[in-house]
Design a protein that fits this description.
single chain; about 400 residues; alpha+beta; 8-stranded antiparallel β-sheet; 3-stranded antiparallel β-sheet; 11 helices; about 40% helix; about 20% strand
């Protein structure tokens, strides 16, 4: 892939140089060349070709049963569905297939909390004990909403001892996010499901739902094993709303298109105020993920440490590995959803396709930003030279 990118960079620089040359004045009827448009279209064509080659190879290598799509703002650069949403009936996946997204749900819960803050109903510096009786104990009384949002509360399983003094370390807690869901209910006077549905409507996500109220017909049943030997995960998607998982922590259902719409709406400022969005996406903790490695953590969202700038979150409930990625500098969404996992090989094996795709898109993002920077510098130099000649 590096050789292909290097060759492309050379090609772009040649194109840039050619269209930047000063030629004799063209006849009056000739239309001026839009240099940026030529280069942008060339870059887009390159992205599309490279993504098709590289991600198609991931599908083939792992016989990936799922859906992967890449969007640059509103433009679809890549999309492929492969395999079955229902292995027993051999129902093929399509663009309307609804998946369990696991912990990708956490960013929705975080946003619901922040929307309540914008209405003046709470503050993230508030102690959770102000809203929930379960936190009115000596062990939990000093845990803040902020600490629940970025997993620094020390809470593991609710009712147990704290893993560490609140605010001093990181420990990923589903129970912490389920508590946040209860806080949303307490201050809004409405159920979590109702709040979530209002948020989906605001974001333009008509095919998304919470597990407890889902009534659609296009749900991708979850399976353990592989395409040749599998067993269905029972009671899906209702089980996601149970106490073992909990809707605020991992019980939202969505589609490729809805998650793309969510990324666009959220990061363009259509959901949260600018200062609130910054609070949501700012690194306030650090996580050492067993599969994804070292990363920053904000409010229900993870981020790259280093380049490229990237917000993402993985999700896993039995049989349903997922990954939602957003690159803010190019407004690019990468969404990977699946409905089967071979747990005997471990979660690291289950997420290998997801990690390979992220590696591909991280590298491509860095290349495009490098190219954009050099092209902008080239255009600036040309403008300077032209102005000196005038």
């Amino acid at each position: 892939m590096t050789k292909k990118i290097s060759s492309f960079l050379l090609f772009i620089f040649l194109i840039s140089g050619l269209i930047s040359c000063k030629n004799e004045p063209a006849p009056a009827i000739a239309q001026p060349i839009n240099k940026n448009a030529v280069i942008d279209s060339t870059i887009t064509a390159f992205q599309t070709t490279l993504l098709e080659q590289q991600i198609d190879s991931v599908f083939k290598k792992y016989d990936f049963n799922g859906s992967i799509a890449v969007f640059k703002d509103s433009l679809q650069l890549y999309r492929k569905e492969n395999g079955y949403s229902d292995f027993k009936t051999k129902t093929k996946m399509d663009s309307t297939t609804v998946f369990a997204i696991g912990s990708v749900s956490k960013q929705f819960t975080a946003v619901l909390i922040l929307l309540q803050m914008e209405q003046g109903k709470l503050n993230v510096t508030d102690k959770a004990s102000k809203y929930l009786k379960e936190f009115q104990t000596k062990e939990y009384e000093n845990i803040t909403i902020h600490q629940l949002l970025n997993h620094t509360s020390g809470l593991n399983m609710f009712g147990g001892k704290l893993m560490f003094r609140s605010g001093s370390d990181f420990f990923y807690s589903n129970d912490g996010f389920n508590a946040l869901g209860k806080i949303v209910e307490a201050v809004s006077g409405k159920s979590y499901d109702e709040n979530a549905q209002e948020l989906f409507k605001k974001a333009g996500m008509p095919h998304s739902s919470t597990a407890n109220v889902f009534e659609g017909k296009n749900f991708a049943s979850a399976y353990l094993g592989n395409g040749n030997s599998f067993q269905v995960v029972p009671d899906m998607p209702k089980r996601l709303a149970g106490k073992d998982i909990g809707t605020p922590a991992g019980g939202i259902l969505s589609t490729i298109d809805d998650l793309h719409q969510w990324n666009c709406a959220l990061y363009s400022g259509k959901i949260l105020k600018p200062e609130t969005l910054k609070q949501f996406s700012s690194k306030s903790a650090e996580r050492h993920h067993a599969i994804l490695g070292k990363m920053g953590y904000g409010y229900g969202i993870m981020m790259n440490i280093g380049k490229p700038e990237c917000y993402f979150h993985s999700g896993y409930v039995k049989g349903s590995p997922s990954l939602n990625i957003y690159y803010p500098q190019t407004k690019t969404s990468v969404i990977i959803l699946s409905n089967i996992a071979n747990e005997e090989k471990g979660k690291s094996s289950t997420f290998r396709p997801h990690m390979e795709v992220k590696k591909i898109t991280d590298h491509l993002e860095n290349t495009l930003l490098q190219l954009k920077s050099k092209h902008s510098l080239s255009l600036y130099s040309n403008r300077e030279a032209e102005s000196e000649q005038q």
